Amino acid sequence: MEVMDKLTILADAAKYDAACTSSGVVRGGRAGTIGTATNSGCCHTFSADGRCVSLLKVLYTNYCCYNCAYCVNRRSNDVPRTAFTPRELAELTIQFYRRNYIEGLFLSSAVLKSPDYTTERMIETLRLLRTEYHFNGYIHAKAIPGADPGLTYALGLLADRLSVNIELPSEGSLQLLAPDKTRAAIFKPMAQIRDGAAQSKAELKLYRHAPRFAPAGQSTQMIVGATPESDRHILSLTEGLYRKYRLKRVFFSAYMPVSDHKSLPVPAGFKPPLLREHRLYQADWLLRFYGFTAQEILDDSHPNFDEALDPKSDWALRHPEFFPVEVNRADYEAILRVPGIGMRGAERIVAARRYGPLSFEGLKRLGIVMKRAQYFITCSGRMLPGLRCSQDSVYRRLTGLEQAALGAGESWQQLSLFDRTVG
Asked: CA dist 6 to 87, 101, 110, Å?
């Protein structure tokens, strides 16, 4: 099979992997090398300095010895199969880079023969890129659960970021739909990557030329909607992954019907839960940047998201005792919890009120989204003049704003698909 035919098959097979993000790596160009990894990202995302960057996102092979029911590359699925050689993939990456098509590589793979064999092939590909072609750009590689720890470590010395897909939110679902995989096999390389990255940072403090192990950290991905776990279960697991394994990102992938397995949603009447995926991403942002906990966002009485309302507004309506927040006296963390006020807005409020009390007009000039925030704040002890709303009417107005915001130019489904594409 020609290399470009292989690329067509294996790039298409890689589209279900959503775990793409900006790299977080700062590594400038060096004499005798090709490319840099200075704030680069991947898969048409935006880097920290505002650039839109891309990388080659591809599988090493779609031959797989596993038979996971939710996966398009499962052993029993009748699809065209192929595999690169390490030389073919390294050469393809370099040629694409020289033509300015890409800035890096996102390399994943199905499990060919065994986890060890697959990891060895991936290592050889990256070794060729780093040592023979002197490629200095960004590389994100997928670690294969079950591979020898020495091979995973060797992969991490060649890649900027590693990721291990957790696949499904519970042990029971994994046993049902992916009997060849276990949670222990997935968490073991996660712990190894966490410890290897911490050790590498400590060594670099002593010797700046020490080898770098996965300097951009690790991420993972969960499939949402293929199994019956609640949003609370998924969010609690996400919080635990951040805390225990120090992940940079947890990605959520709405289940796409690729199988007629009896335990999966029926393809004929099933729609991918793209809006649910979107709400999980919003809640993930609250966990990472807004000081919320999973238990606060969802609890026993509310185990799933209100799809008509963003998680922050939903939390605010369920906790009227926290509001109104006085913007001239409240601390930064309290202001962050007001719907319509983000991190930048909260920083501006804290900075501006040092020079005098803020009014509602002043908040508008600071860029605060008053359409949402006006129901939850006071300025110098006063609410917005003329604002007298019950909880039901506020709910209706906020859901209307949410529909208008996400429906402008795109349907819910189209917007969520776009979000999944860019990560």
From this structure: 13, 18, 14
Tokens at residue 22, please? 């900006």
The matching CATH number, chosen from 3.40.50.1000, 3.80.30.20, 3.20.20.70, 3.50.50.60, for 3-298 is: 3.20.20.70
Question: Encoding tokens for residue 163?
Answer: 């990721």
Residue ranges of domains in the chain: 3-298, 311-420
The more confident residue out of 1 and 280 is 280
> 110: Cβ–Cβ under 8 A, 6 or more apart, which residues?
13, 59, 61, 62, 63, 64, 66, 73, 118
CA distances from 168 to 171, 223, 280 (A): 8, 6, 15
**Cα dist from 247 to 69, 183, 195, 292, 416, whole Å:** 27, 17, 12, 17, 23
Structure tokens at 129: 């890129």
Signed CA dihedral, 238, 163, 59, 110: sign only? negative
| pLDDT tens sequence across 191-248 | 999 999 999 999 999 998 999 999 989 999 999 999 999 999 999 999 999 999 999 9
* Distance (Å, whole) CA 154 – CA 266: 41
